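Entry:
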Amino acid sequence: MSPQSKGRKRKTSGARRRNEPQGPDAVIAQICRTAVRDVESASDALEAELHASGLLGVWWGKYLIDADPEVVFGEPLIAYAGRNRRSGAVGLLRLIAVLGTDRQREQAAAAADALVESGVREPGWVRELGTEQVTEAWRYGDVFGDQTGVLLVVERAGARHGVVALVDHTLDGIVKDVFVTDEPDAVLADIREIDDAVTHVRGITPEEAGAVLVPAFAMTDRLAGADLEPPVDEEFGPSRALAVARVRLLPAPAPAPAPAPLDATARTAVVDEFLGSEEAHDLQPAARGCAELLVEFGSAVDPARPLRVGPGLVDRFLDETLNDGPEISDDEFEALPATVRAWASWAGRRAELPEAAMAVLLDEVDDMVCSIGRPSDPEAVPSDVADAYLAGLDLDDVQPEDLPDVLERRMFAVPAVGTRIGDEEFPFLDPSDPDDRGMLIEGEHPEYHEALAEPESDTVDGVSPRLHITVHEIVANQLWDDDPPEVWRSAKRLSATGMDRHDVLHAIGEVLVEHLHGALTGSGPSDPARYVEQIDILGRTGKARVVPLRRKR
C-alpha cells in the first residue's frame, strides 16, 4: 500500500460519483439494491417470491394524479435491475416476470434474458418458477352469503404452499384479506374445524375457485385504481402479487351476464309480500318506507340476490342508511329497528336458512338495532346516555386523549342502552347501573329468554343459561371497570384477529370459568394472579392462520 493511500479515503466534498442517480431515481436505485440483496438471501423460490410480492405491494393501491404507480415505480425498478450484474438482479427480474403486471412481466423477462446471455448467473431456485400447479381448492363461507374464503393448495418441486383469500360480498365482492402459507395442510385442518350449521366447508374444482377469485381480485384492483381505497386488511398489499399469480393458474371463468335489478313493480311486490307476512303484522305504518329502503339497498348492493340477508349485509345497510343514505322521517327512524328485525326473520325464513343460522342472524341483528341512535361522539349523544357511559369517572383525572379508549371499552362491554327480553321492550337502560347492565346482557341472549323465564329450567343445548349469562356479566363488569386492565388489552388483541365481539367475550369467559372452577365446586380457592396471567396470553399465540369469517364490519 502506498503512503498516499494508506489509511486514507478520497474526499467527495459532496460531489457524486459519475452516473449515480439523483432525486426520485436515487430512491428507485436504493429500492433495487435492497431488493437484490433480499432475493439473494432467499433460501428457496417461495421465500424469494414473498420478498418480491412485498416489494410490489409497496405501491399497489397508491393513487397518483395522471400517472400509474406501476409505471412510475415498477418499470424504473426493472430498468435498474437490468443494469445490475448480480445474481440477485436476475432473480428479481425472474420474479417480476411471474408476479408483475402484463407489461412488467414482458419487460422483466427480456431484461433477465439479456443479463444471463451476458454471463450473469441466476439463482438455482429460478428453475422452479413456473412449475407450480394448483392441486386442491377449498371453499368455506357462511350460509348467509356475506363472505367466502378460498384456500388454494399449490405444489411445486415436491413442496406445498397455500394461498388463502377472503371475499367479502357485503363490500362489492372485493378480496378483503389474503395471505400465503407454507403450511396449507394445517390451515385446511383449521378450516375443517369451523364446518357447522352456519359455516360450510367443501372441496371445489379449479374452475369454481376461479369463478370466485378472478372477479373478486379484479374488483379490488378496480376500486384501488379509482382511488376508492378498498377496505382491505394490512397483509393484503404485500401478499397480493403472489396471490394473483397463483389465481392466474386457474381456468379463466366465462364472462357472467350482468344481473337484471328489480324494477319498480317488482320492488313494490316484494314490499307488499313482506308487509303481509306474519313477521310484519305488528309493524307501524312507517315500516313501508323502511322496507322500501331495504329492497332498494339489496337491489343496488347485490342485484343478483336482492333479497339475500345476512349479518354483514344488515350491518352495511344500517351504516349507510343512518349515516350516508337518504333522509328518513322521524316515524321511519322510530320504526326502523322493528322493521329490520322483522325483515331479517322474514328474509331468513324465505331463504330457508337453517335453524342455527337463523338464531345467529337474529341475535346479531338484535345487537345492531339496539344500538340505533347511539352516536360514538360523547358530545353528540343525549346527556343521559353520555352520563351513563361516563358514570363513575373523575373527568378531571382522565386525559382528553384517553377518553375515546374509555368509551370504546365501556361500549364494548355494553354496546347498547336498549334491549328486548322476550316480548318486552326496554328502550333505555342505564349501563352504569349493575342491575340494568345485567338486563342488557340478558337481552343479548334471546336463545335463553324462554329458559330463564322458567324457574326450574336446567340447560339449553347442554349450556346452563344462568351460568353463561353470569360469566358474561362478570367479564362485562371487568371491562366496564377496567379491572384487571389485562381483560381489555386481550379483548383488543382478539378483536384484531377478526373475532367478533361475542366470540371475544366467550374466549375470555372460558378462562374465567376455568379460574372459578375450584371456587364454584368447592375443590379449591381461586387464584386471581393466575387468572390475569392466563388472560394476558389470549391473542398473543394461535394456531396456523385462517382468514376468519367476520359477520360484521
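The first strand starts at residue 133 and ends at 142.
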